[in-house]
Amino acid sequence: MKNKQISILILSLIGTLFAGYLAFTKLFSGTCSLTEGCSYFMGYPTCIFGFIFFLILFILSLFSFKHNTKTPTLIVSILAILFSGYFTIVDIQQWTGHYSLGLPSCIYGLILFVLIFILDLVD
C-alpha cells in the first residue's frame, strides 16, 4: 500500500509542478511557456484546470500517505482523464506540428492522470 501511495504522490507532484509552471507562465506573461497553442475552458487556459486537478490529487495522496487511509483519488483521476482527454483530442485535431516537447502538453497531463488512475485500481 505504501509503494502505491508514494507512486501516486510522486506522479501528482510532477503533474502539479508541470501544470503549475504552464499555468503561472500563461497567467503572468500572457504566453504559453512551450510556444504552442492554448486551449481555453470557461475563459481560462486549460493548464490552470490541470494544475487544480493535480494539486487536488497531490493533497489527497499526501493525506492518504500520512494517515494510511484511502482517499477519493480514483474519482478525481477519472474526472481529470475526461477533462484532459477531451482537450487532448481538441489539440490533436488542431495539430500544428510545432511543440517544444514533441506533443501537445495536454497529452503529458493525460498520461500522468492515466498512470495515477491505474495505480489507484491496483490493490
Structure description:
By secondary structure, this protein is mainly alpha-helical. It has one domain (2-121): VKOR domain (de novo design (two linked rop proteins)). 72% of the residues lie in helices and 3% in strands. Strands 1-2 form a two-stranded antiparallel ribbon. Strand 1 and strand 2 (44-45) form a beta hairpin. Helix 1 (2-29) runs antiparallel to helix 4 (105-121), helix 2 runs antiparallel to helix 3 (73-93) and helix 3 (73-93) runs antiparallel to helix 4 (105-121).
Features:
single chain, 123 residues, mainly alpha, de novo design (two linked rop proteins), two-stranded antiparallel sheet
Topology of helices and strands:
Elements: H1 2-29, E1 40-41, E2 44-45, H2 46-67, H3 73-93, H4 105-121
Antiparallel strand pairs: 1-2
Helix pairs in contact: 1-2, 1-4, 2-3, 3-4
Give the gist of this structure.
By secondary structure, the chain is mainly alpha-helical. It has one domain (2-121): de novo design (two linked rop proteins) (Up-down Bundle). It contains four helices and two strands; from the N terminus they run αββααα.
